[in-house]
Amino acid sequence: MKLNKVAMAVALTAALGSVSALAAGDTTTGEIQLQGELVTTPCGLAPESSPVTVDFGQLPIHALADNARAGNVQKNIVLQYCDPTVASSAVVTYTPTSIDPANDALAAFTSGTATGAGIGLRDSGNQDVVWGQETTPVQIVKDQTTIPFVAYVQADSASATPTAGTFQSTINFSIAYQ
């Protein structure tokens, strides 16, 4: 009987030792990816500002009747580490990948099934953006400068009836400092 108890104690000790050895030998691995860009401009573009995503959700076609603007989503381009001693203001130039052929004030839908409408922008001064032209200047603030804009969807013309469906578009921007 004594021998059985000794054997059981030895077996239990061996089993517990092997479990802790297995646990100590297991590892969890992962990866940290780091990226960025060093620039010579008075400000850098904050990570959340490229790309800036605008989601209009679902817009009923009747919201575009009589040339109305629907969606009106306000977003920001955020500049970081700004030095106002190097430049006092910034202007943005917006350029869509494709201009709406029926209304050159709108960016064309470049994919999806919706037709008869496009996307427009208003700048930080609440002025309609003219593609390829500089916007209202924004004052550079030390460390972080925010450049707001409003995106909207509008029918190609007052008489156009848009077709329902999904849409996507891309509008590129460049920032010049003054």
From TrEMBL:
Domain Fimbrial-type adhesion: 32-178
Origin superkingdom: Bacteria
Record carries keyword Signal: yes
One cellular component term from this protein's GO annotations in UniProt: pilus
Cleavable signal peptide: 1-23
One GO term (biological process): cell adhesion involved in single-species biofilm formation
InterPro entries, per the entry: Adhesion_dom_fimbrial, Adhesion_dom_fimbrial_sf, Adhesion_dom_sf, Bact_Fimbrial_Adh_Pro
Alphabetical UniProt keywords: Fimbrium, Signal
Annotated localization: Fimbrium
Alphabetized Pfam families for the sequence: Fimbrial (PF00419)
PANTHER family linked to this entry: FIMBRIAL SUBUNIT ELFA-RELATED, FIMBRIN-LIKE PROTEIN FIMI-RELATED
Family membership noted in the UniProt record: Belongs to the fimbrial protein family.
Protein name, UniProt field: Type 1 fimbrial protein
Organism: Tenebrionibacter intestinalis
